[in-house]
Specification:
By secondary structure, the protein is of the alpha+beta class. The protein contains 5 helices and 4 strands; from the N terminus they run βαβαααββα. It is globular and about 40 Å long.
Length: 147
């Protein structure tokens, strides 16, 4: 199986379910704190560049949900600066395959299964992206849904 670097928000119930799905499939994880990682323009773009800029953002982050931050109103440079300054706004998890260096953003189960493989399960939802409820461990109100 694969060893993945898994950038997460500590305490997030959604990230816990995502980790469990990866580990059930036999993958090993090196967990890192997304909020305290030393992000630079280049390190963040290594994950985000293949995606449309609006998909770089965690749509359930409080500042986005409130309308204070509107990703579509930003250019790429402003978006990167904002994400580096406020990592809570980054769509998560960010994952890197240590074998081939490939990277993935978010946790759509079909996409993750195609990327590194997941155990087939009739019980697994189509997407494990996001927290399951506001009462779970994502205490900041950062409960994101699939983008």
């Amino acid at each position: 199986m694969t060893h993945l670097v898994f950038f997460e928000k500590p305490g997030c119930g959604g990230n816990a379910r995502q980790r469990a799905a990866l580990q059930a499939a036999g993958h090993t994880l090196e967990r890192r704190n997304l909020l305290t990682a030393p992000w630079t323009r280049d390190t963040l773009l290594a994950f985000l560049a293949p995606l449309p800029m609006a998909d770089w953002f965690n749509r359930a982050a409080p500042r986005i949900k409130s309308g204070e931050v509107v990703p579509e109103a930003l250019d790429a440079d402003a978006a990167l600066a904002l994400l580096i300054a406020e990592p809570l706004l980054i769509r998560r998890p960010l994952m890197q395959n240590t074998t081939d260096g490939s990277r993935h953003v978010g946790f759509d189960t079909d996409a993750v299964s195609a990327w590194v493989g997941l155990e087939p399960s009739a019980q697994r939802p189509a997407s494990l992206e996001g927290c399951s409820s506001p009462t779970h461990a994502c205490r900041t109100g950062d409960h994101h849904a699939a983008v």
